[in-house]
Specification:
Length: 292
């Protein structure tokens, strides 16, 4: 929430294991909780004018079946990045509670089962997503989930990163699946307990800071490094990189660079681009047909 002393429009991404309340007062925050039991504490500690954009709990060794869903989370946006959902019989009694909360379930893209699980969750009305950080391991499953997300006629909850990419794409800009990792120099700043700032959690972990100091935060959105990082992908054109010849570069920005050599990513991302454009046309036609 902007105030007279806070002149930035970025969100800060941080770990929730240090006392950030005073340092980041008045900002919008994405907070990583170390333990599930930390979530209620964080919700209670963060008070207006500070805003919780999301609380993230990440544990790829656990399943939805093994997680205790806490009704005290209320309407706070919670993202559970877990390894799997488990057996349906073990999660059936949690579904109604999940739908009453503001929870998104994110699974890794390392198996076909993850894509099926995300489709199941979405069909049950639960916001869900696939994390492609370590690449896409089965493009056929990717295409199946994509078809369900964009062309399915049955009502279902949003599937990420497809929904967010479609929302932010306007036909003239560039988007990427790395939005799932809160990488967007024009939207997110990652910060540690020493006031060091970076554009991703990986950069922060590796000490690749673009600046540091608590006094820079109120005007962080005008930092010159943001513009430089935002146009970093253009270097690929200067280098004449293979990815820049891909028609789907507009919705990828070389995110799947490691899989581009065998061309396995191009068909899938072209399908995504076509699906997003289809959705835009569909929404436009729907709006036009409702004009009085």
């Amino acid at each position: 929430m902007p105030t007279h002393w806070n002149r930035n429009n970025h969100m800060f991404v941080l770990d929730g294991n240090w006392s950030f309340k005073d340092r980041l007062k008045g900002h919008a925050l994405v907070i990583y909780a170390q333990e599930l039991c930390d979530i209620p504490r964080i919700i209670q500690e963060v008070q207006t004018p500070t805003i919780i954009h999301a609380i993230v709990y990440e544990n790829l060794f656990c399943s939805l079946a093994s997680i205790d869903i806490d009704s005290s989370w209320g309407n706070t946006p919670i993202i559970l990045r877990i390894g799997r959902i488990g057996q349906y019989r073990d999660i059936a009694n949690k579904l109604e509670q999940l739908k009453s909360l503001n929870v998104m379930i994110v699974l890794p893209a390392d198996s076909s089962q993850s894509y099926r699980d995300v489709q199941i969750l979405s069909s049950l009305g639960i916001h869900s997503g696939i994390d492609f950080t370590n690449g896409c391991h089965t493009w056929e499953s990717f295409k199946d989930l994509l078809a369900y997300a964009f062309y399915g006629r049955m009502h279902h909850a949003d599937i990420e990163p497809f929904t967010s990419m479609s929302t932010h794409y306007c036909g003239m800009n560039y988007v990427s699946p790395d939005i799932m990792s809160f990488y967007n120099p024009e939207r997110y700043i990652h910060i540690d307990n020493n006031g060091n700032v970076a554009f991703s959690r990986e950069q922060l972990k590796n000490g690749d800071f673009f600046d540091s100091g608590w006094d820079i935060l109120p005007n962080i959105s005008s930092h010159p490094a943001i513009k430089e990082e935002s146009h970093k992908w253009q270097q690929l054109f200067i280098e004449n990189h293979t990815c820049t010849y891909c028609p789907a570069f507009r919705v990828c920005k070389a995110f799947f660079m490691g899989q581009s050599e065998n061309g396995s990513c191009q068909d899938g991302m072209m399908d995504l681009l076509e699906a997003i454009e289809f959705k835009k046309v569909e929404q436009s036609n729907r709006i036009q047909s409702c004009q009085l």
